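Fig. S4 source data, part A: sequence.
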Amino acid sequence: MKGRRQRGVERGAAAAFVLAAALIGLALTLAGCSTAQEQPIAMTPESIQTLQFYPYQVKGYQNSYPKRSIVVITPAILRNFADAGSVGGADHEPYQGHPAIGVILDLHNQVDQRLYGPELGPLFRGAIAEAAHEAGMNSAAATDSLHDELQARRADYVLAAVVTGLWVVKQRGKDNEGGPTWFSAARVVMNVAIYKPPFEVPFWQGASGAQYDDPSMPPAGAMPEDETEIYDQPGEVLSVALTRAAAGIFQHDDLHTLMLEDAAGRRP
């Protein structure tokens, strides 16, 4: 009788030991996961991003303009980096011929990676020409100067732009059970003038810009980490802002009205 009680006690002690060991193992595993999530994410110091115009992403202005010809010359790039926030001036310098377009920040607002893109003049020239084509115009891109294009008179209009802002910041947020959270904000700003050859006085002037956040800012009361980003690469986020800014030129009601009246007043 005494022997059976002794064996029961031993079995109970063994079971308790196994349970305790399992609980300790689970705790260590969870602690390891938490530590892993909090570890810095290894990144190369620089990243060359792809930037592009996304055709037909912006809706509502397609084929709304008269079938007039327009030439887009290479925009001037005069960024003041006001949209770069507190990031140091060193992050604005080109890298191997690639212009700076943004940064990736860690949890402590420190730069983890500097972002660079393609030559901006040809990028904007092509994007604006594509937006003009979507608007319904016969568009072309040109490398000549404004003066030469106006004197050539090969189109009904010549568009010249000055890019004053282009920047994207991707920042790591709080970790959740799915891993690190991220938030990206991109901004593009430009001034635009449209001319009627051969006159060097603008036919129309205006500004066009776009701010795009990924994920979008949550409604009041929601936590940002509850939202999920759409794009993996910050260059994609900046491309959305670029697309919206280029299309935004032709969403100006005054420009639309002016060109319709100008086309109606011309002889075929």
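Fig. S4 source data, part B ends here. Residues 2-38 form the longest helix (37 residues).
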